[in-house]
Specification:
- By secondary structure, the chain is α+β, with helices and mostly antiparallel strands.
- It contains 2 helices and 5 strands; from the N terminus they run αβββββα.
- α1 packs antiparallel against α2.
Length: 189
Amino acid sequence: MQPWNPSPLMRVSDRVEGFVRILAVLVLLIAVPTAAAAGTAAYSSASERIHTENATKIVVTGTIIGTPARVSAPVADRNGTVRDHFEAQVSWTHDGKSGTAIVGVPDLAAPGQPAPVWLGPDGTPTTPPERSSAAAVHGIGVGIAVLLEIWCGATAVVWSTMWALNHRRHIRLDREWRQFSHPTGQGSQ
């Protein structure tokens, strides 16, 4: 039944419930472009951040000076293959400054071999450049999260409204039933 139905048999609670359901459907429909806009904004922001961070990083070739050690957790390489992760102490010289740090190295690396070291703008070791596809993953994640939050919120409002109205209807029905109900054998004479 529509909330604007002129029938005198339609209760106010039925009209409110119908109106809340219509509003919920509108919110669900509006949620799609809202989530898309949030995802696009998150993608743009992440893409700009990744581009800025990657532009400040440089790679230098260092020399492995320590024995590579296996780190407990396997990691995925750039191709998505999961491998054991090894780290070793590496020394390097860049712009007349020397440094050492523990960095990730290939699994077959040995002391004395070259190893790439990524440096930040201040010359300290940093993580390798982030892939630009990470921005797309971030944007999609934000869009889906916003969509699910709005849909769950709308569903919760509809459910709680229906529960409250049904609870009110049951209380009213019980009250009316007690007015017309008489214990057996004690009816009016």
